[in-house]
Amino acid sequence: MPEKSAGEDLYGFQQVSANHLSFRVAVAGSGDRLLLCLHGFPESAVSWRHQITPMAHAGYRVWAPDLRGYAGTTRPVDLDAYRIETLLEDVTALIEAAKTSRVVLVGHDWGGNHRLAIRDAISGLSGIAGRLERPASRPLRA
């Protein structure tokens, strides 16, 4: 990974073919430990911009895809293409496309529904219900 300047988030985007769609995925890091970050509604992969680089520096290969129908990912027209079963197939196909056996799945908001439904296919789970922001530069006092 290139050197990081203070405050600079280093990640790129690539298109990944999975479940007959083209997903735009924010990517950073390398290795066999995949951290797959699923955004909420109405967000995109960019909602993970403050977490991607630090998690890559922590030793993870980080993927934050735009989910089906969002931002740079294919947008099927048929409403049936957005059934939860199909969305779960997308996540499973993204994991397969990553060619890894070690996956930690993090979901925010709507993305959290995905992580709970496929928990048998992954090695770790996390859910975030609040807003995704950078931590405060100094501790908050009560």
Report what the structure shows.
By secondary structure, the protein is α/β, with parallel strands linked by helices. The chain has one domain: Rossmann fold (3-Layer(aba) Sandwich). It has 3 helices and 6 strands, in the order E-E-E-H-E-H-E-H-E. The protein has helices at 49-57, 84-98, 110-117, and strands at residues 12-18, 21-28, 33-38, 61-65, 102-108, 124-128. Strands 1-2-4-3-5-6 form a 6-stranded mixed sheet, with helices on both faces. The longest helix is centred in the middle third of the chain and has 15 residues, at 84-98.
Gyration radius, to the nearest Å? 15 Å
**Structural class, please?**
alpha/beta
- Helix percentage range: 10-25%
Largest sheet: 6 strands, mixed
Q: What CATH architecture do you see?
A: 3-Layer(aba) Sandwich
Report, as a whole number of angstroms, the end-to-end distance.
Answer: 39 Å
Shape from CA axes? globular
Q: Could you tell me the strand content as a percent range?
A: 25-35%
Give the oligomeric state of the chains in this entry, treating copies of one chain as homo and distinct chains as hetero.
Answer: single chain
Taking pLDDT < 50 over at least 5 consecutive residues as the criterion, the unreliable ranges are: 124-142
CATH class: Alpha Beta
Query: CATH topology, anyone?
Result: Rossmann fold
Q: Average the pLDDT over all residues and give the rounded result.
A: 80
Got a strand count?
6
